[in-house]
């Protein structure tokens, strides 16, 4: 066999082998892509439960359950920046509450008293400035440990951000995932919205590690 034919044969064998590997192992590899985003810390009694903005009502449901079980005496909610469409709907009277108002009302419906809810007044557009505001609130109130409730695929990024924000203060952040029907490690690649969400998380993590997250707000 000539050198050229040997090279072509090697390329064909490598291509076929790679194709077989992808067919056989694509499912476990893709499952791991989603599973790698999920962090679940050991639950401990804390000073407050933080509802990381988004995912209403699943995150509020989880936070209210933790509150009723006595894991913390207070619940902190942030103020997500309202989009122009939300502002317009509120101005028209079509939508009665903003995003923070909906979060507060959901917690109330699930049994969290109004005087046990701390609502942050400053709006934040993304998770990084949101958790910075939460950290400032926790430090001002003398907290030592908080429970951070978010969606499963968001837990890894929340863990990274909180670790950076609390490096000096030492305020511990316990990250917990709120169960949701929208997230699964199985067949996520067949669901467009879920695939877009996972891509968003990986891009967010990349931006954090590269130090360019402020440019992506």
Give a written overview of the molecule.
- The protein is α/β, with parallel strands linked by helices.
- The chain has a domain at 48-181: Rossmann fold (3-Layer(aba) Sandwich).
- Helices cover 49% and strands 14% of the residues.
- The chain contains seven helices and five strands, in the order H-E-H-E-H-H-E-H-E-H-E-H.
- Helix 2 (58-68) packs across helix 4.
- The radius of gyration is 22 Å and the shape is globular.
- The model has no long low-confidence stretch (mean pLDDT 89).
Helix-strand layout with pairing:
Elements: H1 3-35, E1 48-51, H2 58-68, E2 75-80, H3 84-91, H4 99-109, E3 117-124, H5 127-140, E4 145-150, H6 155-165, E5 172-177, H7 192-210
Parallel strand pairs: 1-2, 1-4, 2-3, 4-5
Helix pairs in contact: 2-4, 5-6, 6-7
Give a summary of the structure in a few sentences.
The protein is an alpha/beta fold. It has helices at residues 3-35, 58-68, 84-91, 99-109, 127-140, 155-165, 192-210, and strands at 48-51, 75-80, 117-124, 145-150, 172-177. It is built from seven helices and five strands; from the N terminus they run H-E-H-E-H-H-E-H-E-H-E-H.
Described by strand count, sense and barrel closure, the largest sheet is:
5 strands, parallel
Counting DSSP H or I runs of 4 or more residues, the number of helices is 7
Return Rg in Å. 22 Å
> Please, what is the average pLDDT?
89
Write the CATH architecture name of the domain at 48-181: 3-Layer(aba) Sandwich
Number of strands: 5
H/E element sequence: HEHEHHEHEHEH
Strand content: 5-15%
CATH topology of the domain at 48-181: Rossmann fold
